[in-house]
């Protein structure tokens, strides 16, 4: 199952809450019995998600807020929420470069001075990616990014 899209606090004008409070899923992934499965405090960590591809780049000053890996029906998924103080230009370039060769022509991108959104499926059709982020209103100079990855 693919991890659901996140409502991104970083791209809104609402006050920020800690990542575990501000993270909301619009359609949680389903477990083997069809019930909703969401990361909980016991399964979330501040390490990189076990299932996230090893070549996924991170800014040097990354601060992991939430990390979760899961496997449902033989398909792996990963969720990562992190912050950085690097500029939006630097972070956007990092992820534009990373995804340019991986995602097919059907990928969608919205990149400007306040938002970074890249979503798509790899050219081989085996992975789905989404990275969404923007500036935190409560922490000037800090970006928060939400990454979801899933095997298809």
Features:
38% strand; 2 helices; disordered N terminus
How many runs of DSSP E, i.e. beta strands?
10
Helical residue percent?
10-25%
For the CA atoms, what is the radius of gyration? Answer: 15 Å
Question: Mean pLDDT, as a whole number?
Answer: 79
Alpha carbon gap, first and last residue: 8 Å
- Secondary-structure-based class equals mainly beta
Order of helices and strands: EHEEEEEHEEEE
Large-scale geometry: globular
Count of helical regions: 2
Percentage beta strand = 35-45%
Q: pLDDT below 50 for ≥5 consecutive residues: which ranges? A: 1-43
**Order of strands side by side in the largest beta sheet?**
5-6-10-9-8-7
Largest sheet: 6 strands, antiparallel
In words, what does this structure look like?
- The protein has 152 residues and is mainly beta.
- The radius of gyration is 15 Å and the shape is globular.
- Strands 5-6-10-9-8-7 form a six-stranded antiparallel beta sheet, covered by helices on one side. It has a two-stranded antiparallel sheet with strand order 1-2. A two-stranded antiparallel sheet has the order 3-4.
- It has a domain at 62-151.
- It contains two helices and ten strands.
- It starts with 5 loop residues before the first strand and ends with a strand.
State the gist of this model:
The protein has 152 residues and is mostly beta strands.
Task: Indicate the topology.
Layout: E1 6-7, H1 19-22, E2 24-25, E3 29-30, E4 36-37, E5 63-72, E6 75-84, H2 88-100, E7 108-111, E8 115-121, E9 127-135, E10 143-151
Antiparallel strand pairs: 1-2, 3-4, 5-6, 6-10, 7-8, 8-9, 9-10
Region (Disordered): 1-57
Biased composition (Polar residues): 1-36
């Amino acid at each position: 199952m693919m991890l659901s899209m996140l409502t991104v606090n970083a791209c809104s004008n609402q006050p920020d809450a800690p990542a575990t409070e501000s993270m909301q899923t619009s359609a949680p992934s389903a477990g083997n019995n069809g019930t909703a499965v969401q990361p909980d405090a016991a399964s979330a960590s501040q390490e990189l998600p076990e299932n996230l591809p090893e070549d996924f780049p991170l800014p040097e000053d990354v601060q992991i807020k939430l990390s979760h890996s899961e496997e449902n029906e033989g398909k792996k998924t990963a969720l990562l929420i992190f912050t950085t103080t690097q500029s939006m230009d630097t972070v956007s370039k990092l992820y534009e470069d990373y995804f340019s060769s991986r995602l097919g022509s059907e990928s969608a991108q919205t990149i400007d001075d306040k938002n970074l959104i890249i979503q798509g499926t790899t050219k081989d059709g085996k992975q789905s990616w989404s990275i969404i982020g923007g500036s935190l209103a409560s922490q000037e100079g800090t970006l928060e990014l939400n990454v979801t990855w899933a095997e298809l």
